[in-house]
Amino acid sequence: MTTRAGFIALIGEPNAGKSTLLNRMVGAKVSIVTHKVQTTRARIRGVAMEGEAQLVFVDTPGLFKPRRRLDRAMVAAAWGGAADADIVVLMVEAHRGVTEGVERILEGLEEIGQGRKIALAINKIDKVQPGHLLELAKDLNARYGFAETFMISAERGHGVEDLRKWLADELPEGPWLYPEDQIADLPMRMIAAEMTREKLTLRLHQELPYQMTVETESWQERKDGSARVDQIIYVVRDGHKGIVLGKGGETIKAVSQAARAELEEFLDRKVHLFLQVKVRPNWLEESERYSEMGLDFKDGNT
Questions:
Q1: How far apart are CA 159 and CA 157, in angstroms?
Q2: Residue 60 assigned ligand-binding role
Q3: What structural domains does the chain harbor?
Q4: Which SUPFAM superfamilies match (predicted)?
């Protein structure tokens, strides 16, 4: 039996559908999925099996023009994930086409493209006419020599199996990197924090302060098989604390219930989730916060 294994980096602009594709490939929710940009901070790895091949996905932060330390660290993590991978998949939104951001990414691919296969996945194909798709694929392939091009809908699953099979065939021969039943190498504490942050994002929409993070402060296993999880939501201003709490605490209560329900489904057991909101004006300049998110604080330097 010949086994294959390797790392696959999904790169693209924010909202290109990388997290949705990762979750569909893995068959479980391991990456935060929202309609706001810049939601994926850490390099989340999801593990999928395809025949005798083990596909380890690196879901990188969306590539965009960085302005703050956190932005710079996220962009550095994205390119670092791509440079470390065996195969890179560039995801482009069909209806947005070749934006300035996509052009910047294509320039970056020239630097990391040596020695690894780079595929193109045009996502959200249901949003455009077939003729437009063919023109876009032709344009992108004229700009960069992709190993293969796929037309997909990560949300609906169209074309995803073809992409998964191709990736499995292209990975290097070698032993599996993780146990067969493992779907992510993130600590459960971080996955739980990501789930809560997603619920905050979905609940607050435009009000949500980007300068907010969630940390799992403690995780206690109980004798009855349940778990007690304590999390802190850090915001930079008192005004943001009020937004997260909501009138009479209704927002944080709803967020806690939704996050707990998803965590219980994920773990298949009872969870007691307790959330606190704390004002920490300078958390964006604290190296420990970056470590919690799997980012390198030094990468945020100008």
A1: 6
A2: yes
A3: 4-170 (3.40.50.300), 188-300 (3.30.300.20)
A4: P-loop containing nucleoside triphosphate hydrolases, Prokaryotic type KH domain (KH-domain type II)
16 marked as part of a ligand binding site: yes
Asked if residues 241 and 279 have their Cβ atoms less than 8 Å apart, the reply is: yes
The C-alpha atoms of residue 269 and residue 283 are separated, in whole angstroms, by 33
Tell me which amino acid residue 294 is: G
**Residue 174 counted as an annotated binding residue:** no
Q: Is 12 annotated as a binding residue?
A: yes
pTM of the shown model: 0.62
Query: Annotated binding residue at 59?
Result: yes
61 annotated binding-site participant: yes
The Cα–Cα gap between 263 and 154 comes to 23
- Using CB atoms within 10 Å of the CB of residue 263, give its burial: 0 to 12 exposed, 13 to 18 middle, 19+ buried: buried
The response to whether 18 counts as a known ligand-binding position is yes
On whether 123 is known to bind a ligand per the annotation, the reply is yes
- Is residue 63 a known part of a binding site? yes
Strand partners, 53: 4, 50
Q: Per-residue pLDDT tens, the chain, 302 aa: give them.
A: 789 998 888 888 878 888 889 888 887 666 544 444 444 445 556 788 898 998 888 766 555 555 666 556 665 665 566 667 889 899 999 999 898 888 888 887 877 767 789 999 999 999 999 889 999 999 999 999 999 999 999 999 999 999 999 999 999 999 988 777 666 555 677 888 888 988 888 888 766 555 778 888 888 888 898 889 999 998 888 888 888 999 999 999 999 999 999 888 887 889 999 999 998 877 667 666 666 556 665 655 54
Sheet holding 212-221, edge to edge: 212-221, 227-235, 271-279
